[in-house]
Amino acid sequence: MKKGQLLVLLDDADAKIALAQAQAEFGQVQRKVRGYFANDAALGGQVNSRDADIAAAAARYSAAAADFERARVELDRRQALSASGAVSGDELTQSQNAFATARAGLQSAKAARDQAVAQKAAAVGERSVNKALFEGAGVDANPEVAAARAKVEQAELNLERTRITAPIDGVVAKNAVQVGQQVQPGQMLMSIVPIRAVYVDANYKEAQLRNVRLGQPAVLTADLYGGSVKYHGKVAGIGGGTGAAFALIPAQNASGNWIKVVQRLPVRIALDPQELADHPLRVGLSMDADIDVSRR
Predict the structure, then answer these.
(1) Exposed, middle or buried: residue 119 (CB in 10 Å: 0-12, 13-18, 19+)?
(2) What digits encode the pLDDT tens for the residues 116-161?
């Protein structure tokens, strides 16, 4: 078995549907963000239009103010002349009505001017809210687009993971999956042994390790091939603890009933890759190891 070889093919129907949905949402979000930019131009036009409305309302207010002042002056003049009888009662009434009409027109023009100013403020606020959705970043860098893109990438990754390939060169030592079987996330499907990178853990007695050092050469034989095949390796490491220390129920030597038992410590020996290629080994085989401790 080679690295990258297909081992297990999971049903990818759900993953394909999820990917298509994520891609559709991504396209919708892109169009939505582009709409923010288009709305900004439209809202900018509305703000300019409100400026024109304010100018027109101000002009109407000025005209209404002039009419009001003219009506007030005419009313004051006729009221002054009415006492001497130079102005008839009908003319005075007409002046009073014209003054009331001009005053109402002035109030209406003022309300229209205030309304135009308020409408511009609302348009400016609406444009500011819209601009906050996209300002400082283009369409591709927009947070909403980035989030939708991340969902697409996650869906693509999930689809890719429906094809389980060999991570290393080796052999399948334990297969726990069959065709049609339902598997769960985290479930072990198979064990792969890298036969070209296997090593030996030699469990020496603690008294035998006084002169063992890293890098010392070792000669090994396997019961699988017998003494005719010898492997050559080097000490790659010494275990950080004995098997008893990491046992499920470790020994309680502090209880007082202590009996000394010689402990064994694993020594890892790396083997020559070419020798492994010529005579492959498997996990769990018995080995005899001799370390040359003369080199320190």
Answers:
(1) middle
(2) 888 888 888 877 877 777 777 788 888 889 999 999 999 999 999 8
**Which DSSP symbol is given to 174?**
E
Residue given tokens 């003369």 in the structure block: 294
- Output the pLDDT for position 253: 65
Do residues 202 and 212 lie in contact, with contact meaning Cβ atoms separated by under 8 Å?
A: no
Instruction: Return d(Cα 182, Cα 189) in angstroms, integer.
Output: 11
C-alpha separations of 175 from 170, 171, 178 in Å:
14, 11, 8
Give the span between the Cα atoms of 244 and 237, in whole angstroms: 19
Following DSSP, what letter does each residue of 243-288 receive, concatenated? TTTTSSS---GGGS-------EEEEEEEEPHHHHHHS---TT--EE
Please tell me the pTM assigned to this model.
0.59
Do residues 212 and 267 touch, judged by C-beta distance below 8 A?
yes
Question: How much is the pLDDT for 87?
Answer: 67
Strand partners, 234: 217, 270
